[in-house]
Amino acid sequence: MILYIFAFIFGAVVGSFLNVCIFRIPAKGSIVKPSSQCPQCHHPIRFYDNIPIISFLILRAKCRDCGTKISWRYPLVELITAAFTLVLFMKFGLTLKFLVFFIFTAALIVITFIDLDHQIIPDVISLPGIPIFFLAAIFIMGVPWQEAVIGLLIGGGVLFAIAFVYEFLTKREGMGGGDIKLLAMIGGFFGWKSLIFILLFSSLAGALVGVAVMIIQKKNMKYAVPFGPFLSAAAVAYIFLGASFIQFLIPVYK
Ligand SMILES: [Zn+2]
Predict the structure, then answer these.
(1) DSSP character for 226?
(2) CA torsion 95→100→106→112, rounded to 10°?
(3) Measured between alpha carbons, how far is residue 143 from residues 63, 114, 118, 188 in Å?
(4) How far is CA 222 from the centre of its chain?
(5) Mind listing the pLDDT tens digit for each residue in 17-35?
(6) How far is the CA of 149 from the centre of ligand 1 (A)?
(7) What kind and span of H or E run contains 144?
């Protein structure tokens, strides 16, 4: 029990760091310097006002110095990271697998929120992520290397082909290059079988949310929603549901 609480707190602290990444990577700023400050009055944030989730509640979502509203996104990212750290720890315990899934999930959380804000998936995460998670898959996660190689190639290739054909037929840019690199990273990490689940889950969820956003905001589908958050959500869901999904599929392609 005490370990679960520790895992949650650890996740919240890391979530606090992920907030910094989400905020500074698109601005090309350093993620270690300067220390956190209020974006409005630039007063450095006191260490006792920098406690994940709790400080936000104590400060009632306002800067102690200038009273500017603090976005609810900060505690949300901390809460999401804490929750995933806890469930990953409950599933895998304190193992190397836990550590790899934890880093993988943290990277996807950063990608998701940057994509929501700026409609880009930062190369600084996806490009090093491709070889790092590919190697982790083979040497730590026990994914057969052939499956990881095919996953990497299909992940990168299939989306590239879809985007190419879409652009050729409609003369408009469809899926972004960032999505392709992200799917290559995911495919190389889980192996090619995962891509069936990832593509089904993400396109279904994306279509549902896309249509909802179109109706509510009366926006064009193309501008409605970025795809990165759905790929990310599908990848995290695969950590928990992947094994049962593959079990379910085996009779289909036997
Ligand atoms: Zn302030």
Answers:
(1) -
(2) -140
(3) 47, 29, 33, 9
(4) 21
(5) 999 999 999 888 777 777 7
(6) 49
(7) none
For residues 11 and 82, the answer to whether their CB atoms sit within 8 Å is: yes
What does the mean pLDDT of the chain come to? 89
Measured in angstroms, how far is the CA atom of residue 106 from the centroid of ligand 1?
A: 28
More confident residue, 31 or 103: 103
Determine how many CB atoms are found less than 10 A away from the CB of residue 13.
Answer: 17
Token pair listed for 63:
């800067």
Entry pTM: 0.90
Ligand 1 ion: residues within 5 Å (CB): 38, 40-41, 63, 65-66, 68
Span from the CA of 93 to the centroid of ligand 1 (angstroms): 40
- Category of 121 on φ-ψ map: left (φ > 0), alpha (ψ -120 to 50) or beta: beta
Residue 44 bridge partners (DSSP): 37
Ligand 1 centroid vs 134 CA: distance in angstroms?
42
* Backbone torsions φ then ψ of 39, nearest 5 degrees: -65, -20
Picking from 95, 106, 112, 129, the residue whose alpha carbon sits closest to that of residue 14 is 106
- What single-letter amino acid sits at 212? A
